[in-house]
């Protein structure tokens, strides 16, 4: 079968590799589509530790093609979404139902072969039958599951004000979920005018350019005391630094975007103490995949607006390059 293989930092090629065979508790999935994620850019650049050669791709959707001898949850022909986080379910953190911090954690498309390929082998516990077949919605299940976990961490209150830095697919999922979870208003900051226009169409009250010299003043005109919840969905230390002063006294900051590992920002401990701030991280998924599928099946989110171009597997390097350069506004799909 054909697969995209990373052989070293910034080295990727389409190769012929053996088609996977299922172990007794696995199914082999024929990949319908796989979403392109910023994590893939980090993996390609060598920022995230992986074992080379590596087949990336973790936002996967497809059809069951073959099942192992002990698989009972799915059958050949089922359309499925794939949870890429593979936990051991026996370590200290798994025993506390904190599988995203599993001490033996693996990931499809990271430490395990991923879905930038024609076929991928997946443990049956990571397969979720889908009631829909649209590949655009399918590749957004995993990002939405991550966003739902972040929203659960933040515990948005009814009537709260929300500020989101970043109007890419992740930021726009946060926008839509926040408004449907009871936020009174949600404002968005981004550098890209097209993204801001899309955010406005999806319900954002104010859409503000991150390049504005008077960014803080503009936002304070909307919420003089700051926002109950500020979400960083950019992964930019500079944006995160701008986000902190916009948190209302006793408000919350959700650090959702993935900043470079060695980057630093300055923050006053006294400010955290005096203003009674809560700073939250949100890593990966914690039992939120089924919730994401139910939200999508319920039709409450506009996912079509978030889906962009479709690429052939051979064009994956071009798609990753565009994402690395910030030239993409929507979720890109790779269709093997």
Distance between the termini: 10 Å
Order of helices and strands: EEEHEEEHEEEHHEHEHEHEHEHEHEHE
Question: What would you report as the Rg, rounded to the nearest angstrom?
Answer: 20 Å
Strand tally, please?
A: 17
As for the number of domains, it is 2
Could you list the spans in which at least 5 consecutive residues all have pLDDT below 50?
Answer: none
Structural class: alpha/beta
CATH architecture of the largest domain: Alpha-Beta Complex
Assembly classification? single chain
CATH domain fold name of the largest domain? Quinone Oxidoreductase, Chain A, domain 1
Which class of the largest domain in CATH terms?
Alpha Beta
pLDDT average, as an integer? 96
How many H/I helical runs?
A: 11
CATH superfamily of the largest domain: Medium-chain alcohol dehydrogenases, catalytic domain
How much strand content do the residues show?
25-35%
Mass-distribution shape: globular
Query: How does the major sheet shape up?
Result: 7 strands, mixed
Q: Report helical residue fraction.
A: 25-40%
How would you explain this protein's 3D organization?
- The protein is an alpha/beta fold and 336 residues long.
- It has 2 domains: 2-140 and 303-335, Quinone Oxidoreductase, Chain A, domain 1 (Alpha-Beta Complex), CATH 3.90.180; 147-281, Rossmann fold (3-Layer(aba) Sandwich).
- It is 27% helix and 27% strand.
- The strands form 4 sheets. Strands 3, 4, 5, 8, 9, 16 and 17 form a 7-stranded mixed β-sheet that branches.
- Helix 4 crosses helix 5 and helix 4 packs across helix 10.
- The mean pLDDT is 96.
């Amino acid at each position: 079968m054909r697969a995209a293989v990373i052989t070293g930092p910034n080295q990727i090629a389409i190769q012929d590799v053996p088609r996977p065979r299922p172990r007794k508790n696995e199914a082999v999935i024929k990949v319908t589509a796989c979403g392109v994620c910023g994590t893939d850019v980090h993996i390609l650049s060598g920022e995230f530790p992986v074992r080379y050669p590596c087949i990336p791709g973790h936002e996967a959707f497809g059809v069951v093609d073959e099942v192992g001898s002990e698989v009972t949850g799915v059958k050949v022909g089922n359309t499925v979404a794939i949870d890429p986080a593979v936990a051991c379910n026996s370590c200290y953190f798994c025993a506390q139902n904190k599988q995203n911090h599993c001490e033996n954690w693996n990931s499809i498309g990271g430490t395990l072969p991923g879905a930038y390929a024609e076929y991928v082998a997946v443990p049956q516990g990571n397969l979720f039958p889908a009631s829909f077949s649209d590949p655009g919605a399918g590749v957004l299940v995993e990002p939405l599951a991550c966003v739902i976990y972040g929203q659960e961490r933040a515990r948005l209150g009814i009537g709260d004000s929300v500020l989101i830095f970043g109007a890419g697919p992740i930021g726009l999922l946060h926008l839509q979920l926040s408004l449907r979870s009871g936020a009174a208003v949600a404002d968005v900051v981004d550098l890209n005018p097209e993204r801001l226009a899309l955010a406005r169409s999806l319900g954002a009250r104010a859409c503000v350019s991150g390049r504005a010299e008077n960014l803080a003043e503009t936002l304070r005109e909307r919420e003089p005391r700051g926002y109950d919840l500020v979400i960083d969905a950019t992964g930019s230390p500079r944006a995160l630094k701008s986000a902190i002063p916009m948190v209302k006294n006793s408000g919350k900051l959700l650090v959702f975007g993935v900043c470079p590992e060695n980057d630093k920002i300055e923050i006053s401990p006294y400010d955290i103490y005096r203003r009674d701030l809560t700073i939250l991280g949100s890593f990966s998924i914690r039992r939120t995949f089924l919730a994401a599928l139910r939200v999508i099946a319920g039709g409450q989110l506009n996912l079509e607006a978030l889906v962009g171009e479709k690429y052939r597997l051979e064009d994956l390097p071009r798609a990753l390059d565009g994402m690395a350069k910030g030239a993409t506004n929507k979720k890109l799909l790779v269709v093997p």
